Amino acid sequence: MKKKTTWTRLVFILGVIALIIGVIDPLEGSVIIVAGSVLIAVAAYFKMDRHYKIFILTSLLIVFGVCFMFYLSSLGGFGGTSKLSWWWGLLILPYPIGWLIAVILLIIRAFKKEISS
Q1: Cβ(39)–Cβ(83) below 8 Å
Q2: CA–CA separation, 59 vs 24, rounded Å?
Q3: How far is the C-alpha of 61 from the C-alpha of 42, rounded, in Å?
Q4: Alpha-carbon distances of 105 from 30, 56, 58, 95, 113, rounded to whole Å
Q5: Which among 57, 25, 26, 29 is positioned nearest to 41, based on CA atoms?
Q6: Cβ neighbours of residue 43 under 8 Å, at least 6 residues apart?
Q7: Whole-structure pTM value
Q8: Which of 25, 33, 72, 116 has the fewest CB atoms lying closer than 10 Å?
């Protein structure tokens, strides 16, 4: 028998693909990574997955970091000859942290699904 693919599963898969494709260029691909993390969080929430809170948290971290990355970029960057010190770069840190947590959680979920099958 064929399983029916639900829209949440499709959105989840599209989110994972976007999360991975955006890594090719983390600066310009950050918009794709934001979209992917939001899609994963939405699908996990509607599916009431047991990890949906973590996916929402990682999505918020990624959005926060990317927004500050674009904001600091519009100000001319930080460090070097810029008026902003290197410490302003800490505002970008949630972006890679959120991405890393999301990828680790996806890997853990994949291995646990393999083991339980």
Answers
A1: no
A2: 19
A3: 15
A4: 19, 12, 10, 16, 12
A5: 57
A6: 8, 9, 11, 12, 15, 49
A7: 0.87
A8: 116
- Backbone dihedral angles phi then psi of residue 82, each to the nearest 5 degrees: -75, 160
CB 36: neighbour CB atoms within 10 A? 25
Side chain identity at 90, as an amino acid letter? L
Q: For residue 89, give the DSSP letter.
A: G
| Span 60-83, pLDDT tens digits | 999 999 999 999 888 888 877 878
In terms of residues, how long is the chain? 117
Each residue's pLDDT tens digit, 35-57: 999 999 999 999 988 899 999 99
Within 10 Å of residue 104's Cβ, how many Cβ atoms?
12
CA proximity to 33, closest of 51, 14, 57, 47: 14
The total of other beta-carbon atoms located within 10 Å of residue 55's CB is 26
Residue indicated by tokens 């949630």: 94
DSSP letter (8 states) at residue 83: S
